Every structure is written in C-alpha cells, then in structure tokens.
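Hey Z.,

So I finally got round to the zinc ion thing we talked about over coffee. Here's the setup:
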Amino acid sequence: MSKAVLEAVDALRDDLVAFTQELVRIPTVNPPGERYGECAGLIGDKLRELGYEVREIRPVGWSSYDPVNQRVNVVGRLTGARTRPLLHFNGHFDVVPVGDPDAWTRDPFGAELAGGRIWGRGTGDQKAGIAASIFAVEAIRRAGVRLAGSVEQSATVDEESGGFTGMAALCRQGVCTSADTDHVVITEPLDVDRVCLGHRGVLWTEVTARGLAAHGSMPGLGRSAADAIARLVARVDTELRPRLEERTTAMPVAPLEARRATINVNALHAGQAVEVEQTPMVADVATAIFDRRFLIEERLADVRAELGALMDRERARDDGIEWSSRERMVVEPVFTDAGAPVARAFALAIREVVGRDATFIASPGTYDQKHVVRIGGVRDCIAYGPGRLVTAHRPDEYVVIDELVDATKVMALAALRLLGTA
Ligand SMILES: [Zn+2]
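And the result:
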C-alpha cells in the first residue's frame, strides 16, 4: 500500500510544484499582511476541489484590527471512515518582506523554476509546506486508499508576527483543540530529514528610562535618559550575558549556538529621531527592547527577575532617572517527547523515504506549536516540512523540488500510520 501511495506522490509532482508556485505568486507580505483573502481563497478552492469541507474563519476579537488587511484563516476537513483519530496539518501563508530587492537575483514573487528549485519569498517558509500536506493526503486518495481516521488542513495568517490572529485564534475558537484533535503537524521548513519537537521560550521586555530634557550645551542641567539606557545595556552585556552563556539545554536545539540561553537588544532608541535635522538636547526618554530566549530548564519568573534586578541596580543610583518596563511578548517553551506518536510516525516515514535516520531537533525561534500546545491543549505536536531552515527569511529563498516531493511522501506515510486504513 505504501508503494502505491509513494507512486501517487510522484505522479502528482507537477501539480504539487504548480500549486506551490501559485501560492508564492500571491505576495502575502507580513507586515502588514497583504492579500491574505486571496491566498486563503486559493487554498480553500483547492481543498474544496479535493473533497474537503472548507470554512474561512476570521479571528474573533480582532474585527477592528487593520481594516485594510483583513485577517482570514482557512480550514478544510476530510472525514475518513471515522472522525477520530484526527490529524491536523497547519501551515502559515504569510511571508516576511523581501528586504533589499537588490540582494535578490530572482523575482521574489515570480516562483521561477531553475536548477531543480522553486525560487521566491515564502517558497520554503512555508508555502511548500502547505502544498506538501495537501498533496500528501491527495496521494493517499489517488492510490485508492481510504483512511480510517480524519484529516484537517489549516492555513493561517500572521505566524511571522506571533500567530495570535492565526493559529492562536483557531485554537482559542475551538477549531484545533484536544477535544477533537489527536495529532498536529506544523509544516515549517526544517529540512526533509528532521523532526522538530519544540522550541525555547521568549520574553520580550521593553524598558524605558525617563530623565529631564535640557540644552545640549549644558548637559549638567538635565538628566540624560540616553546615558541611563546605555548603562543598562552595558550591564546586560557584562553582567547577565556571561551567566546566560553558561546555561545549556538538554533540548536538541539546532543550530548548536542556540542551545543556550540568549539575550539580544532588539531595539534601542534615545533622543531625537536620527533622520531629522538635530537640535541640541539632553535626551529625556530612552527605550530598549530586549529579546530574551530562555530554556525549558529555566523558570519564567526567574527570567523576569534577572532583568528586573539589573534595573533595580540602576534605580539604586538615585540619579533622577525613572525606570519602567512592560512585556511585549511571552512564550513558554514547548517540547514534545521524541517517543510521542506523531514524532515516531514521522521518524519512521523519514527512514523509509529518505533512507536515513531522522534527526530530532528543537527550533531556536518559536513557531505556532506554542499555541497548539498551550491554548489548544494538543500535546502530540511537531513541526515537519520541506525547505531548508537556513534559506528562510533570506534573499533568493528557494525550495528544492526533490525535497518537496520527499517531504510530501513522508507526510503521506506518516498520515497512513497515524490514521490507519479503513
Ligand atoms: Zn515559518
């Protein structure tokens, strides 16, 4: 049976490539989230054509959010002989901006075919993943195999900006929860032979220092928020970072440099805007945004307290600077056991299709698994998809067509194993 399914994937190769190209040619750039409706419509039409019941679902509670670029997610259900078990494939169809167009040698939204690859923004990350899961299930049907369990396919928005209106909304609105979903696969690009079990935690903290403005020729009359924020950033670098570098995780985070706790200054600003004509001023407000990635072995409360302690040291100077902070994003780490059903099914399928043992990894950054596990309560969740992680978000992004086909085969065999046949 698996031979027939693998042959069906090969027979669908041209359709799989063509559908990936169609998806890439819609520039669903986020921010701001362009042409989401068009892309959701294309995916919904394809699912309907292949026999799915399709719903377009708008995030609740976000109706006033960006009226120009409306958020819409699409979900298709293909009921097997029974409703359970249910395997849910999820992919995001938003893509990050092109960046410097001169850094590209290909049309970012042309979906050109050359050198055995499809080129363009969002090929790997992760429109190929959406196409792969759809055609994996279609190959099973074309091979004349009836699944015992059922399949859902969702394509969602805004993953690149946190997924709150995308997969988080589907989980919150009861579309993907443990009440009726058994296994979830997020089709992010992590290489054709790797299964991603989870990710580190994230805490983004915005810290603001407020001082007192004065004429720049008499800085002694003011209190410089710029100097204050610079001292805090220096403390993070010299006091906190060396401690973080010693903390490593047992999670198999790839690449290796990310297998430890990290902190990055994501934004830093003080005083006047840089692009305007300058007048002499002591900066009265300064802001830093810290991106702290924490390990499953660390506690969120401790992570918060560490940065708080550095701010307290600055407060203790009692130099008239007021300090405040607010959290811009909190994500707890998630990690599925390598022995969990969905992880095992994919590892076995990788061995069969690619001919080598799967590597289990964890992602350095987060992705929608957090919402599936934390909001939806579905613990049997991994990420697996075509495309190479190292090409994501870069100029001349591409997906290798042979790898796209192999990943589709892996998904098909894993679905057979997880859902059984009728
Ligand atoms: Zn992605």
